[in-house]
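Subject: for your reference before the review

Hello V.,

The reviewers asked for a structural picture of the protein, and I figured it would be easier to keep everything in one thread rather than splitting it across files. Below is the amino acid sequence we used in the manuscript, unchanged from the supplementary table.
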Amino acid sequence: MVRSPDGSLAATFEVRDEKLYYSVARGERQIVAPSKLEILAGATVAIVGHSARESTESWSPVFGQFSTITDHHRQLSLSLDVNNTPMTLVCRVFNSGVGIRFVASEESRDKELRFVSEYRLLEGVAHFAGERGRSVDWFAHPASNESQAQLGRAVANGVPLVSVGADGLHTGYLESDLYSAEGFELMRLRPNRSGGSVSAFSSAVSRGEGHVTPWRVLLVGDSAGDLVMNTVALNLAAPCKMEDTRWIAPGKSLWDWRIHGYDNGSFNYGIDTRSYLHMINFCAEYGIEYLTIDDFWFISAGDGEMVVSPDVDIERVMNHAKENGVRIILYYDRRKGDFGDDKLFGYYAGLDAAAIKYGFMGNNAAFTRKTIDASAEVKLLVNFHDGPTPMVGVERTMPNLITREFCHAQQDSRRAFTPESFLRMAMVSSLTGPLDMSNGNFDILGINAGERQKGPRQRHSYISTVVSELARTLVVYSGIITLPDAPEEYLKKPDLFEFLRLMPTTWDESLAPNSKIGEYLTVARRSGEAWFVGSVNDQAARTLPVKLDFLEPNRVYEATVYEDAEDTHGVENPEAYTVRTTTVKQGDILAAKMAVGGGHAILLRPLDLKGQEH
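And here is what came back from the structure prediction:
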């Protein structure tokens, strides 16, 4: 047995009938009943030795939800005889989670490592899966443990899986440090025929001494918000491998894709040089660090050659961006031809691109590792799209992986996601790391009316309010916050846009005081002495208490409050809002009153910092 540093969480290992089992408990409450672990299929197992240690250290991520993360855990290492092959099992137990991985021996070289970890769940548990593809509501509904078929629906969408007990205990099942586990692909989940349990499995051919599996991770918390802010998966990931990270800059990015077809009164936005120059000017004037140029800037690619659209003078666009201090993220779609990854990243760097948005390579861990490494060599950030491998924790190891679309982005496949879908992704899919979800539309009426080429095909299917859109940009963490609306629409609502302009992209501290999967979420983030708070609601109007316990004592703050108006409605009147200011102090409670599909946002600054930007 190995216990967490605070003694609350315990992992126990035993051999039964020559098979290895583990269980996890918090206090007297069993979380995972005795469940099987395997590393060689069908092998017999004996424990031949063990060692234990405790470790405490702090480290600073290059970007993220926290400026400093503490790694405090106790570790148990078991020396195993697995069919006469030495293996080591390593278990780390934190106060809020458990990680388990195998380390191979030289004697295992060329054998198939089949890592199977079972999760035998207890009764009275509801299960939630995230959304990770281009479809809406993929198996994202809660499934009662009373029906194995319903549990199957929940796990069919893959990792992560979140389970909620009748007592409110939340557990999350995923993995970490797949980047270091060469040969392994993302773990897959399947319900076991016996009922009440799920198995995760992945395999690779052993490369001998020191070859590691990914960490199988169990997160534990009293709320969904606890899981969102859990740092266990990051602590289990390998430390940063990059000697120089100064070039890695998180930030906000305007995105051209959703603007196509917007008429600003003098021209229609399109895929052309004029539109890109206009967007760059807007970014430069209002402090938006990036512009993302998506599909169709090039027509085809192959063997180191790129055929650029005749409507796009890419050299002029890139030069104009550089002259104005705006970084460019360029999309690459291999469906238009294989440029060749051995040449691709150098080509993009040669264009002075700051990042590559790589689409349509799918769930391929080997490709993901190579792309992250190759892009880092030429100092390119990477944003993977279209159902990628999440590679959990890699933003610690290789922080040029700045974000990814391991979710359903708003209006992707020209289908809008619902407020409930957003909230499930914000509390389940986000456990894998930063998400590029494309929140922050201000022209909801125009989008619903079909005024955008890339808007949802079904009109009036986009349910949200402008204040909810504002809050969503804060609630879901991403190293690049993608702003998908037209510049003119942001300028029509300058008070809301001011919140976006002032909002940082990397944080000193984050917490989630209100949360219920699929229903509501409040996230508060601190940068310096200022706090940004966002709340998002489902399609049931409600008021949430936002307790300001996190503020510094004996200090008065100015609170700028962005609210749904009395007549706001996510379907019928989505763009009505109010802005007010008040003063607050530690311990006060602000009421976040939200409409159907609505939201709420607060900017809190000490009065002596009034007027200073962050």
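For the response letter, the relevant points are probably these. Confidence is low (pLDDT under 50) at residues 133-147. The CA atoms of residues 334 and 360 lie 7 Å apart.

Happy to draft the paragraph if you're swamped.

O.
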